[in-house]
Amino acid sequence: MEIAYVETTIVGHVAGRLLKDPAAAAQQQLTRDWWAIAPSHLELVVSQLVFDECGGGDPSAAQERLDVIANHRMLAITQECRELAANLISAKAVPASEPRDALHIAIAAVHRVNYLLTWNFKHIANAVMRHHIEFVIREAGFDPPVICTPQELSLDDTDD
Hints:
Blueprint: E1 2-6, H1 8-14, H2 22-37, E2 42-47, H3 48-54, H4 59-69, E3 73-75, H5 79-90, H6 99-110, E4 115-117, H7 127-139, E5 146-148
Parallel strand pairs: 1-2, 1-4, 2-3, 4-5
Helix pairs in contact: 1-2, 5-6
């Protein structure tokens, strides 16, 4: 079974109330529909970083986010992950102001997951930076995960 690292923005779209903005609410609903069927197609994994980010903010909302990921396997944040994250930043593949985003990418690469799922278009699923991110990961000796959104990772096999 293929493995997908679930970055924090995905969890945020699954938990909580739907937003008032129609486009944002549609993105949330798409993510929730995807989340409902994903476990039959993929192993969804997280890291301590995802747990830490989900645990912040309003205690009630934080608990809801933590409940969403409570039973998912947690990938270790190893020294290798930290070094790759530092490489991503020093190579300017990820801005120095975003060390957590670099670490999410590094965790997925070091643990050789197939997909990194995110709604973070600014620093992770950024079409302009993707080539550079992948280059740095390959230079470090890893295969980059496919960085994508749930919308891009269609699991609906009824259209075959």
